[in-house]
Amino acid sequence: MIVIVGASLAGVRAAETLRAEGFTGHIVMVGAETHMPYDRPPLSKKFLSGEWDTDRVGLRKQEMLDALAIEWRLGVVATALDTTAHRLSLDDGSEMSYDGLIICTGGIARTIPVPGSMSGVHVLRTLDDATRLRGELAGDVVVIGAGFIGLEAAATATQRGCRVTVLEGLEAPLVRGLGAAMGGAIGDVHRRHGVDLRCGVRVSGLEGTSRVSGVRLDGGEVVPADVVVVGIGVAPATQWLETSGLTLGDGVVCDQFLCAGPERVFAAGDVARWPNRLFADLEPDMRVEHWTTAAEHGAAAAKNLLARVRGEAPQDFVTVPFFWSDQFEARIQFLGRATAATTAEVVAGDPATGSWCAAYFAGDRLTGVLGVSMPRLVMPARALLAKHTTRAEALAHFAAATSP
Question: Are 183 and 243 in the same domain?
């Protein structure tokens, strides 16, 4: 029996791959939420705007899920793992044995202290989160955190007619993902649409009694708020593994096969940290919180688990990370990696116009490509990032791609 903990994109792809690779045994999917698997990207956009409803965010049609012959254990939370006894404990008091295990528990939205039972303060991670926020999204909306979820929520709220303020502690939005210069340019997209984006500010607390009325900044200023959205990132959901003996470090630390240590225990998706040899010179290992990696991880973990069961050699998981984000009219796409060691150079378009492409370099090596409303330049660059491409080679590629 193979148990998948996390009824997520990574979990579903793992189950689909197990069946596609010929596994006919028992598959159990354990999910903390009561919903069947759904797609997260629309939650901050089309679902939050009201354009889509719950029936549009399902990850697969029900008949496709039924064909996988999965035993669904939804609405229960994994609480402990004994890798010696091959046993999983659940919060309903039951235990479950496994022959193989794939951990896909994803992440948990980080929060800030909220006094008492104050209402009007939201995070945006789950379908239930998005449903609650959608029902209240009106008036003065303050978004704390200018990461991707925060900015997507800010764009959607603005388009719904709200007055939106975004508060960010760093010098620009998206610094950790894109660097200060390119993050600042995306911030300008928001400013052009009327968002009050404030960077380099610190939140000291919330104002209000039964319901939030404002966000207090260091220095005493209070920003009025009918609704507050906390978008300060997620923490990998590993608390239940603290006594498991697995190596934890901002995620489940895996090898290059996505194996978490014990021979038949693997991890996939937002919770997994692994060495991606394509970028080993930039960072020894990485944890990627994006849709494409979760899908790829689920498939790779399932294949490597089956390889171990069958006595075959597992395969390294190597990928060029990719993510996208829709904010106002801007389609933001990024391939590769950006770290504190990389610098960005605009190779096409102009950030002032809202449409541009930038290449990221670490020394003489191309490490990433950002496109804002320039899809024709982004995806062809995957081949450049799948090998060590020099700065001169990359610039020549983009010059040829943009020549009349």
Answer: no
